[in-house]
Design goal:
The chain is about 90% helix and about 5% strand. The protein is an all-alpha fold. A two-stranded antiparallel ribbon has the order 1-2.
Length: about 160
Amino acid sequence: MYYTPEDFKCLCIKKSLINGYCRKQVDAILAQVGEDYISMAKENEEMKSKINLLNETVQHYKVLEESLQHSIIVAQHTSEQIKTNACEKAKNITDEAELSAQRIIETANLEVIKAKGKLDEIKGQLYSFKTKSEALINAQLDVLKQLFSEENSEENKG
């Protein structure tokens, strides 16, 4: 049985006629108080051990929390770097694609210009061929006309 503070306030020890207080009762109370004190001391030590263990656990979790917070910060920083790098890479890819497209367009334009030049050259050659052909045909017609007119004049003479 534990004595509570209220129990000690209400505790009444009988007096004996010869030696003052009743020795058996005082010894019994002191024995009980001693047992209670030992029990309380053990319980106090157990509580201190539990408190220490809980403090160590709390400290462990605080270290874990700090580590997780640091990891989160590192992860956020890393994700921002990855995002920045991805944006830069995308911009570089876009720029390279635009330059490549521009080169392709310029090459195609040069090819068109060359093709137009070749077309103009072929048209000129065709025109020259046509003109020469017409001149040749006209010359041959003239020759034929002269031949027919000479034959007709010889037939008319004879």
